[in-house]
Amino acid sequence: MRFLFLGDMVGRTGRNAVFKKLPDLITGLQLDFVVVNGENAANGHGITEKIYLEALDCGVDVVTSGNHVFDHKDTLVYANRVDRFLRPANFPEGTPGRGSSIYIARNGARVLVANVMGRVFMYPDLDDPFGTAEKIVSSCLLGEQADALIFDFHAEATSEKQCFGHFLDSRVSVVVGTHTHVPTADVQILKGGTAYMSDAGMCGDYDSTLGMDKEEPLQRFLSKILRARYEVANGPATICGFAVDISDRTGLAEKVSPLRIGPHLQQILPDFW
User: Fold this and answer.
1) Counting C-beta atoms within 10 Å of the first and last residue's C-beta, which end of the chain has fewer, N or C?
2) How high does pLDDT run on average in the chain?
3) How far apart are CA 273 and CA 257, in angstroms?
4) Residues acting as catalytic residues
């Protein structure tokens, strides 16, 4: 199975870059399944139902989220109604929406996608992510109830992300981190066969501070004074993600590569498709 994960879409420039480029990527790379993190898609905070539907229209199969998931209050309503939008699974019981679900890929494979949020340096402080992941994996075994298991681990600390990857190694197809908006250089297949990347980076303007206009965050470091709200940087966006070739036989990773298209960062496309 040819799988692509794209990191946090940040604002209009980030989401428009994804909406413009993804259809050609799906066709050109013959992608079977695409997941995008959308928690910063609406002016940098949260995602509206309109943007969610636009993501599906351009070929996204599942939209994941994170700590900004409910920044738009209408998300509390549509999260219960739609089936391809995920909020972190370790929110308390009764929170609107779902944290994981099984979907059918273009090649017919059954794909479980789970969204889990870390706790180190994160707000809100949710339930134990490791215990949550264990419950999900125990109820949907790789090769039995699903042909591939994909985890978006939305977390700050790379130590927590790496431990989460090792915890699930050999039992899931992919563990990919989101939230920090900076693509990491540790793309690899872990010893047990799980594809891993600490952070997929963002789809947004990299002439910025994590997708935000750089002037206000810079002056806050210099003066310790809040002078204005953060505003999304609206320059040309780079889309960043993680490409994985998943074995149809084992459900584990066979090949992995970062994906980067756009200005400011070195461009990379998977060379195995």
Assistant:
1) C
2) 97
3) 11
4) 68
